[in-house]
Specification:
- It is built from 14 helices and 16 strands.
- With 429 residues, it is an alpha+beta fold.
- It has one domain: Glutamine synthetase/guanido kinase, catalytic domain (Creatine Kinase, Chain A, domain 2), CATH 3.30.590.
- It is globular.
- The protein binds glutamic acid and magnesium ion.
- The site of glutamic acid (GLU) has 10 residues, from loops.
């Protein structure tokens, strides 16, 4: 029998998982790690590396696996394959200042040390399943759509379950061939790790069934978008502190301050959480994604949606209560999504100001009390460049790598129609 392999993986600035393999027993028993190249972080979604990337041809890193992240994919005509997520470190094991996972760990740790807050999160993913004559289009949320996706659906949920990713809901979504998978909330780093692994498990399971799963934010301009919604809640000393039955929107003072921090930096955050050339097309009114920079009770057009509580059978509302950040998509690295949200939350709590307003009614057409989100990526990047506080969260190199990728993708797609751009990204994500 062949010795099982393990894929040591990082997730890069275009949210793709890359890495190298080692024998699994070497990883587990001899603490093996594997070499890596700094400039790999400047790969764009289409495989190009911009010449003006900050890393150049010099330097070496190691991918240092975190053994707690192991998941196993069913073998393709052979042994199962383990995947371990890794931090990118210098060759002496010290942190590399561009590593997205380390960035998230630092931001989460800072929220804890500054405010005693443990960030809890869960990523909710939508994706489109295509490429197979048998995948006919069923009705929105329909049992027919659900059944058409079998045996993919049951197998996906079972792989997620056996790997400890704690799947909750598997459903046929509203869009044509669109599905959604949710997992239970977890400490924020675990939640981001799970998001990265979940996407790979979904894509891998689809491939093994002769299909393609795409998390592209928009399959085509007129189609329903695939969102990534990040559910956030806060704990202190292990206890939920997000819910307050007597407060506006049931949001505790600290949660309201945290939400205000996210709204304050929202335009700059978009450059990290929705960073492809097509991402902003999804973030428009009437798409139930996010129509502007506001927080609202249960409104699916809000940037921050205060989710309902379930009190059936006497359930304690505080345990499930959470705020949902809706302006993320799967072209964004989940570690960086969590990282910028943790920083914005810290910033809001530092400022000590609760939300000015929590909307309880749908916003009216042209309601000028609601600031719009940046209309495209270049507007989001301008907002980032104008937000000194957000800029200060990043090392020079990480920021330059991020901006360089966006320039190179814009150049690569120049002259294409919006639909052609959607098509290019569909094939990657
Ligand atoms: N498809 C919507 C989006 O692009 C989300 C719909 C929903 O689940 O609320 O974010
Ligand atoms: Mg959905």
């Amino acid at each position: 029998m062949a010795k099982p392999l393990a894929f040591i993986a990082t997730c890069d600035l275009v949210a793709l998982v890359r890495g190298r393999s080692l024998f699994r027993d070497g990883v587990l028993n001899d603490s093996k790690n594997v070499g890596w190249v700094p400039a790999d972080l400047s790969l764009n979604a289409f495989g190009g590396i911009n010449d003006d990337n900050p890393y150049g041809s010099v330097g070496d890193l190691r991918l240092l696996p975190d053994l707690s992240t192991e998941v196993t994919l069913p073998g393709i005509n052979g042994e199962d394959l383990s995947i371990f997520l890794a931090n990118q470190v210098l060759t002496d094991g010290s942190p590399w200042d561009s590593c997205p996972r380390t960035h998230a760990q630092n931001s989460i740790a800072q929220l804890l040390s500054d405010h005693g807050i443990e960030l809890v999160a869960s990523f909710e993913h939508e994706f489109t399943l295509t490429n197979e004559a048998e995948i006919a289009t069923g009705s929105p949320f329909g049992l027919d759509s659900f059944r058409i996706a079998e045996p993919f659906g049951s197998e996906l949920v079972s792989i997620l379950e056996s790997n400890g990713l704690e799947p909750e809901n598997w459903l046929a979504e509203y869009g044509s061939r669109q599905f959604e998978i949710t997992v239970k909330p977890a400490p924020a780093l675990v939640a981001a790790d799970r998001a990265i692994l979940l996407r790979e498990i979904v894509r891998d399971t689809a491939r093994r069934h002769g299909m393609m799963a795409s998390f592209v934010p928009l399959p085509a301009v007129e189609s329903v978008g695939n969102g990534v919604h990040v559910h956030l809640s806060f704990k202190k000393d292990g206890k939920q502190i997000t819910f307050d039955a007597t407060a506006p929107g049931n949001l505790s003072m600290i949660a309201s301050q945290a939400a205000a921090g996210v709204l304050k930096h929202a335009a700059a955050l978009q450059a990290w959480t929705a960073p492809s050339q097509i991402s902003a097309l999804r973030l428009k009114p009437h798409r139930w994604s996010s129509a502007g920079i506001f927080a609202a009770v249960q409104d699916r057009e809000a940037l921050l949606r205060i989710c309902p509580v379930n009190t059936i059978h006497g359930a304690d509302p505080s345990t499930s209560f959470n705020i949902e950040y809706r302006a993320a998509d799967a072209t964004a690295n989940p570690w960086l999504v969590i990282s910028v949200l943790a920083r914005a939350i810290s910033s809001g709590i530092n400022a000590g100001k609760p939300l000015d307003r929590i909307y309880t009614e749908p916003i009216g057409e042209g309601d000028t009390s609601v600031p719009l989100l940046p209309e495209d990526l270049s507007a989001a990047i301008s907002a980032l460049q104008a937000d000194g506080e957000v800029l200060s969260w990043f090392s020079h190199n990480l920021l330059e790598a991020h901006l360089g990728i966006r320039r190179s993708e814009a150049e690569e797609l120049e002259g294409l129609t919006a639909n052609e751009k959607c098509e290019r990204y569909s094939r990657v994500y």
